[in-house]
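Checklist before submission:
- one chain only
- standard amino acids only
- sequence pasted in full

Submission:
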Amino acid sequence: MTSSSKKAAPAKSAAPAKTAAKAAPKASSGSAFAKPLQPSKELAEVVGSAPLPRTEVVSKVWEYIKKHKLQNEANKREILADDKLKAVFGRDKVTMFEMNKYLAQHLK
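Returned file contents:
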């Protein structure tokens, strides 16, 4: 009887975890990240002028950074802004963690 009790307990504890895991994707499917936003004229110089979801804007900015080799070689977390990115960031350099804060200011 102890062996059947042991088998029943893990099944009960696993069921709520599966339910919670299934609920999470539904909550994020209507995410604000997927909503197309209009880039400012400064950001449009880097990503184009068409409205894009936030995730796509970040991807295009990273493509631009890598294409123009704007990552600091000594500290890969640091982005060295060229003239176009300086107009977006307002600074000579930002960390990859700060980048989204500056991009958000250029999306409507």
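Reviewer check: Strands lie at 36-37, 52-53, 78-80, 93-95.
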